[in-house]
Amino acid sequence: MGKLEGKVAIVTGAARGTGEATARLFVEEGARVLLVDVLDEQGEKVAAELGSTAAYHRLDVRKPEAWAAGLAAAEQAFGAVTVLVNNAAILEVASFEEHSHERIQEVLDVNLVGPFLGMQAVIPGMDEAGGGSIVNVGSIDSLEGEVGIAAYGASKWGLRGLTKCAALELGRRAIRVNLVAAAPGSSEMSAPFFAQTTKRLQERIAAGEEIDLAGPPVQPMGRGAGSVRHVAQMVAFLASEESAYCNGGDYAVDGGFTAGHIFPGSPGSY
């Protein structure tokens, strides 16, 4: 029997990346899952591949009425929702001054307001069911700063704060709320970040600037070692009864990247 046997889950942003990996693992572990996204063709394809214990529903996380409809669809298909995974997110890559007001608002609406609305939607049903687990998928940018992603970073720090506030309010009602601070994520979402980083480096090199690409920080377990499956495994743990005493926590899935920095040449370095 899987660790999520008997659970009914909603996973947002489930058409690809971390959300897709999470939905697939949840089904493997015995859960019934409503995949929600705005990428209909991809979401429907994933749900069809997962079979009768999964279904797809279009849901714009920014809209309360969309959450009400999505919750109703999950309950009609599978029963009371006892797990919510707030994974849907968008990324804006720009310098601080380049962020437009419209784009800042959009990032905050999807990445922070969306999870807030989702949590509000599922809480009454979780109360009736005797409890549940809410897992917010943050980022290593929920734990430290980064250049070029001010709006995204602010949204993920906000999600971390929301997680802790909700955990304090809901813990005595047997509803646990935790955050996964992920390094690996959707390759489609992160592609613009890497593309712009590469472009800026090429421009600086072309201008004759010397760039030290070998300097700190260094990833302790090696770059490129993580995958969305690793993140999904942490999400599944927090959704399961194995994490029954975990509430309000930040769980980094980053290979130790946010633990500190390794300076080449110092004792214990490599």
CATH topology: Rossmann fold
Can you summarize the main beta sheet?
Answer: 7 strands, parallel
Radius of gyration: 19 Å
State the fourth-level CATH superfamily. Answer: NAD(P)-binding Rossmann-like Domain
Give the N-to-C terminal Cα separation. Answer: 43 Å
CATH architecture descriptor text: 3-Layer(aba) Sandwich
Number of strands: 7
Roughly what percent helix? 40-55%
Return the CATH class.
Alpha Beta
SSE order, one letter for each helix or strand: EHEHEHEHEHEHHE
Write down the domain tally: 1
What is the count of helical runs?
7
Query: Which class best fits the helix and strand makeup?
Result: alpha/beta
Subunit organisation of the chains: single chain
State the strand order across the main sheet. Answer: 3-2-1-4-5-6-7
Strand content: 5-15%
Average pLDDT across residues? Answer: 90
Q: Describe the global form.
A: globular
Low-confidence stretches: none
Polypeptide structure, described:
By secondary structure, this protein is of the alpha/beta class. It has one domain (8-187, 227-253): Rossmann fold (3-Layer(aba) Sandwich), CATH 3.40.50.720. 44% of the residues lie in helices and 14% in strands. It has seven helices and seven strands; from the N terminus they run βαβαβαβαβαβααβ. It has a seven-stranded parallel β-sheet, with helices on both faces. Helix 4 links the parallel strand 4 and strand 5 (132-137). The radius of gyration is 19 Å and the shape is globular.
Quick recap:
The protein is of the alpha/beta class and 270 residues long. Helix content is 44%, strand content 14%. It has a seven-stranded parallel sheet with strand order 3-2-1-4-5-6-7, sandwiched between helices.
